[in-house]
């Protein structure tokens, strides 16, 4: 039995093996496990987000309508961000930059190479447009999506494992990752059998813990108006700063730091800004998941949009059980409009 699995005598994990294959061929069609991980993550995020949005009073599966715009733009943004932050991979003499049928092309997304920060930018644009189309409040959708987004990122990181990429510094820890010495990313000068930090696994664990934290905050403290999404940005970005510090794959260096470290720092700052601004602007709970003047297509729906053109104050009380449960966690704006001015 390989040491990659378990020590024969003490049952202690000796190392983590890299998968022997990264794709399967079904006739003329090649299916990459990297892509399957991404797709599985998107499906899981959609299911969880649909559950959370429906529970808030949105029409079931409105998440699909929003995803029609958000997912493609997220993928495009993720690829563009990766290409721009790794220009030496794709541009220069002898590169197959624009030929989609050659390896190393900017179009060859199936080879790997997407960046979550680009996905967030592109996905946010698509989600905003989708929310305008469906009538869902953007921040309501963002909060509903936040746990699912971390879940999708945790699942997607297994794609890096299948691709034998994005590992960290050498280590002798019992959970070190095996990488073949023939791998183009294997650092020169190191002996065969060197183990590396499995940064993909660190991020999987961190993101999974983040899902639990976000669900708890949403349930116990009623983080709304974008505050839960702000916590997501802070949580993910803080972890990413750590993982980036031990990764050894090539990256653009800006003022001594990897480009994704800077992106993570920006993510933390943006998250803190959203948290502060939205807490000041919206001290209470959301009156409805829908924008003013919009509502469910079901005429018998219990939850309808309220006339709240300013979007700065709440104009309806939350359900009684939420008031009881959340009295210590959030303040509810007075229902008398004169006294709230």
Gap between N and C termini:
73 Å
Total number of strands: 6
Major sheet: arrangement of strands: 1-2
Derived structural class: mainly alpha
Looking at the structure, what is the overall shape? globular
Average pLDDT, all residues: 82
Structural notes for this entry:
- The chain is mostly helical and 341 residues long.
- It has one domain.
- It has helices at 33-56, 62-85, 87-90, 116-134, 138-162, 199-220, 227-246, 259-281, 320-326; strands at residues 23-26, 29-32, 177-178, 195-196, 253-254, 257-258.
- The strands form three sheets. The chain has a two-stranded antiparallel ribbon. Strands 3-4 form a two-stranded antiparallel ribbon.
- Strand 1 (23-26) and strand 2 form a beta hairpin.
- Helix 4 runs antiparallel to helix 5 (138-162).
- The chain is globular, with a radius of gyration of 23 Å.
Give the key terms:
mainly alpha; disordered N terminus; 5% strand; 6 strands; disordered C terminus; two-stranded antiparallel sheet
Topology:
Layout: E1 23-26, E2 29-32, H1 33-56, H2 62-85, H3 87-90, H4 116-134, H5 138-162, E3 177-178, E4 195-196, H6 199-220, H7 227-246, E5 253-254, E6 257-258, H8 259-281, H9 320-326
Antiparallel strand pairs: 1-2, 3-4, 5-6
């Amino acid at each position: 039995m390989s040491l990659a699995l378990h020590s024969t005598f003490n049952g202690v994990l000796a190392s983590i093996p890299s998968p022997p294959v990264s794709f399967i061929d079904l006739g003329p069609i090649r299916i990459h496990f990297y892509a399957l991980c991404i797709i599985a993550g998107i499906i899981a995020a959609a299911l969880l987000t649909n559950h959370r949005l429906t529970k808030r009073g949105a029409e079931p599966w409105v998440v699909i309508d929003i995803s029609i715009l958000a997912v493609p733009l997220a993928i495009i943004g993720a690829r563009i961000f990766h290409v721009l932050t790794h220009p030496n991979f794709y541009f220069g003499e002898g590169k197959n930059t624009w030929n989609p049928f050659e390896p190393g092309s900017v179009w060859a997304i199936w080879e790997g190479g997407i960046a979550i920060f680009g996905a967030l930018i592109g996905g946010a644009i698509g989600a905003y447009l989708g929310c305008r189309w469906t009538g869902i409040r953007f921040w309501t959708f963002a909060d509903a999506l936040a746990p699912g987004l971390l879940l999708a990122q945790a699942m997607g990181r297994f794609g890096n494992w299948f691709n034998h990429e994005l590992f960290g510094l050498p280590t002798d820890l019992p959970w070190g990752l095996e990488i073949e010495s023939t791998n183009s990313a294997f650092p020169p000068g190191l002996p065969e059998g060197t183990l590396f930090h499995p940064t993909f696994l660190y991020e999987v664990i961190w993101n999974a813990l983040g899902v639990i934290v976000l669900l708890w905050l949403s349930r116990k403290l009623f983080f709304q108006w974008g505050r839960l999404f702000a916590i997501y940005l802070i949580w993910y970005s803080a972890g990413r700063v750590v993982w980036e510090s031990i990764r050894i794959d090539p990256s653009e260096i800006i003022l001594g730091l990897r480009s994704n470290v800077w992106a993570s720092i920006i993510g933390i700052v943006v998250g803190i800004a959203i948290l502060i601004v939205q807490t000041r602007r919206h001290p209470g709970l959301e009156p409805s998941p829908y924008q003013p003047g919009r509502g469910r297509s079901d005429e018998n729906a219990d939850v309808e949009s309220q006339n709240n053109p300013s979007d700065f104050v709440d104009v309806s009380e939350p359900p009684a059980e939420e008031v009881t449960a959340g009295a210590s966690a959030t303040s509810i704006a007075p229902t008398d409009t004169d006294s709230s001015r």
